[in-house]
Structures are given as C-alpha cells and as structure tokens.
Amino acid sequence: MTVRKLFLLPGDGIGPEAMNEVRKIISYMNAELGGTYETDEGLVGGSAYDAHGVAISEEDMAKAMAADAVLFGAVGGPQWDAVPYDVRPEAGLLRLRKDLELFANLRPAICYPALASASSLKPELVEGLDILIVRELTGGVYFGEPKTITDLGNGQKRAIDTQVYDTYEIERISAVAFELARTRKNAVCSMEKRNVMKSGVLWNQVLTELHKAKFADVKLDHMLADAGGMQLVRAPKQFDVIVTDNLFGDMLSDVASMLTGSLGMLPSASLGAPDGKTGQRKAMYEPVHGSAPDIAGKGIANPIAMIASFAMCLRYSFGEVAQADALEKAIANVLDRGIRTGDIMAEGCKQVGTVEMGDAILAEFKSLM
Ligand code: NAI
Ligand code: MG
Q1: In this predicted model, what pLDDT tens digit does every residue of 25-47 receive, in sequence order?
Q2: What ranges do the domains of the chain cover?
C-alpha cells in the first residue's frame, strides 16, 4: 500500500475555510474508498510571517519538497501590506513555485451548465466549455535578464525587460501540453508571436519538431497570440489545450477564466518535471482566487475552486481519473440543484455558506462513488 503524501498549506483569509472542505473529502476517501492519503499541514503567507517572521519556514519548505502533492489555499491580506518585501506573503508562493520547479501552470476554463448564464458571453458560446490553458511559468519576460530601468541623463529613462526561452524550456512545456491533450480531445493550439518575436520563432520551431518526433497523433494548430485572444472570446469552444508562454499565458488564462463566471469557481495546477525514477511530477494545486479579506471569517466563501483544485490533484498527481470525474460531476450536480454560495447566487437558487456547500458536494460525491 503506497502512502500518498499531501502537504496542506491553507494560508490566510478564506484559504483555511476552503481547505477545511477539502479535508472532509480526503477523510471520506481514506475511510470509505481505500484512500491512502497522509496529510500534513504547514503555514504559508501572512500566517507564517506571524509565527516565524518568514513567508514559509525551511521546515515547511522541506515538507513541501518531500510531498507527492501540495494543496495551497491563498495568501495575503491588508494586515501584512507593510511587511518587508522579502517576507511578504506572496514570497511564500513564489518560493514554492521556484524550489519545486513548477514550470507548467494549468488553468482549466470549464463552464458548468448551471452557470452558463452568468458568463459575460452568450450562454450558447460557453455552455459545455472545457478548455485547458497550459502556461509556461518559470521563464520568459518575467525573469529574463537584463531587467533594468536606466537613467539616460537627458531627462529620459529606459526600461528593459528581456524575453528569454531556451530549447529545453519550450520542449518540456510542450510535452506537458501534448500529454494532457491525449487525455482530453487530443488537440493542442500553440500561441506565440513569431511574426515579431525571436522567442516566438524558436517556440514555434521547437514545438513543431517535438510534435513530429513524439506526438504526431495529437492535432496541432498554431495561432498568433493576439488572434488567439480574439478567438477565445469569439468562439472559445474551438479549443481543447492551449499552450503558451509566461506573459501571454498570464493574460489569456485570465481572459479564459472570466468566460466561466466567478473567481470562486476556478482551480489551477502547477506541475514540475517528472522524477527520473518514479515518473511522478512535483505538483501544487491551488484556487485562482486570493485570500478575499473582505469576506474572510464570515463562513460565506465559495469552496468550489479549492475542491476543484483537489480534483485536479486526483487526476494529475495520482491518476485517479474516475474519482476526479466524480468529484467534478458532484460539483456540477450541486450547482444544477440550485445550491449556491453568495458569489454565484442567482434568482430562484438557495444560498448557502462555505460548510453547507462543502457538505452538499461531499454528499453528492458519496452518492456517485
Ligand atoms: P481575491 O481573489 O482575494 O478577491 C477578489 C474578489 O473576489 C473579492 O471581492 C472576494 O471576496 C471575491 N472572492 C474571491 N474568492 C472568492 C471565493 N472563493 N468565494 C467568494 N468570493 C470570492 O483578490 P484580491 O481582493 O485582489 O486580493 C486579496 C488578497 O489576496 C491580497 O492580499 C492579494 O495579494 C492576495 N492574493 C493572493 C493570491 C494567491 O494566494 N494565490 C492570488 C490573488 C490575490
Ligand atoms: Mg494573472
């Protein structure tokens, strides 16, 4: 019996409230479904700063490194706005991403039928939408050197950011996209700007060669990233997996996510390289939303983004596809029945709090298993 080590970092604000609802699901899986999940828990963000004076302690970092998967809530809040830059809450998140080498950020945009009318697009454009944006997370213009602001001495300053991509970085993110596509509708659309950027030229070339060599069975399209943005809001259902760089991915994933309704619904995963021996990837799963200080402690946060992040964990870290499908179906069924937290409340629906929403999803999950 292999123990599956989960390291929980609930963080600040609504992070712990949302994480509690995942904990209930894990307990059920261990008790009733033969799950072998072993959970440990640490502090990150403002709560770690209050306890240790850092955004994450070395001890907790070591536990995150040793875990099969990390579940992360959210960090930050106004009470930590004035703490030194190096230990600000976000530093904990950045440290985790860097040390775990989480270079692939997966952002699904799924439109639950019950919420199609809440989208900013016409319901028929988004109903049944299920796309996955794979964003390169550790390279590109956010990290490239030089990165400077220089005084030119004539009343002018010059700011420089540098977009850098090496072959191996493009290869590994492309491989993730192709592999994921094979478990979905088997189609990848790569987005870059090879018309004006050298990094786009290389991106296109490396990805195309990898496709030919190892993933020729996957349908591959290329789009210029600006045109891709247009297509995302014109006809989003044409896409299955979109793979793109750090900067374009930041914007395109935010655009795509809003096609589907509330921030409280959106999960994400960040994956690292496969371990040489086990093939297991380091991974962290987290909701897209932040710590929501305006509603923290009130018991009204929507736990769905956190629960859906755990579903991604089951799918991508543990290959529990049937369980992941069932958990996502449980979310959809509960929404179909009109059970809603405040952020997704609609006429004729029943408004519930965080715990009731978690209980409803767990009950539905049980009935599906
Ligand atoms: P936010 O995502 O925390 O909240 C934005 C709005 O959406 C708020 O009105 C909030 O109440 C609502 N909201 C978010 N999640 C919700 C949920 N699950 N259920 C119901 N309503 C929800 O973003 P904001 O306000 O810009 O940032 C608040 C704090 O969170 C800041 O300190 C920020 O730095 C931090 N943050 C942390 C992130 C992370 O840990 N990954 C990501 C984004 C922000
Ligand atoms: Mg963003």
Answers
A1: 999 999 999 999 999 999 999 99
A2: 1-110+263-369, 130-258
- Residue 67 marked in a binding site: no
CA of 289 to the centre of ligand 1 (A): 5
Rounded to the nearest 10°, the torsion over CA 107, 113, 116, 117 is: -160
Compute, in degrees rounded to 10, the torsion defined by CA atoms 81, 84, 87, 90: 40
Q: Which residues contact 210 (CB under 8 A, 6 or more apart)?
A: 171, 174, 175, 178
Best mutation site among 71, 266, 291 for ligand 1 pocket (most ligand atoms within 8 Å of CB): 291
pLDDT at 177: 98
Residue 162 has pLDDT above 80, yes or no: yes
Does an H or E element contain 193, and which? none
Q: Which amino acid is at 236?
A: P
pTM: 0.94
Taking the C-alpha atoms of residue 47 and residue 22, their distance in angstroms, rounded to an integer, is 20
Same fold, 1-110+263-369 and 130-258: yes
70 CA from centroid of ligand 1 (Å) = 20
Tens of pLDDT, residue by residue over 198-242, are 999 999 999 999 999 999 999 999 999 999 999 999 999 999 999
Q: What is the CA radius of gyration of the chain?
A: 21
Asked if residue 146 has a cis previous peptide bond (ω within 30° of 0), the answer is yes
Residues in the chain: 369
CATH number for the region 130-258 comes to: 3.40.718.10
CATH code of the region 1-110+263-369: 3.40.718.10
Q: Tell me: the pLDDT tens digits for 76-132?
A: 999 999 999 889 999 999 899 989 999 999 999 999 888 888 888 898 999 889 999
* Residue that is written with structure tokens 């016409």 in the block: 122
Paired residues of 110 in beta bridges: 130
Ligand 1 — pocket residues by CB below 6 A?
14, 74-77, 93, 263-264, 289-295, 301-302, 305, 343
Question: Which residues on adjacent β-strands are paired with residue 133?
Answer: 107, 242
* Span from the CA of 37 to the centroid of ligand 2 (angstroms): 31
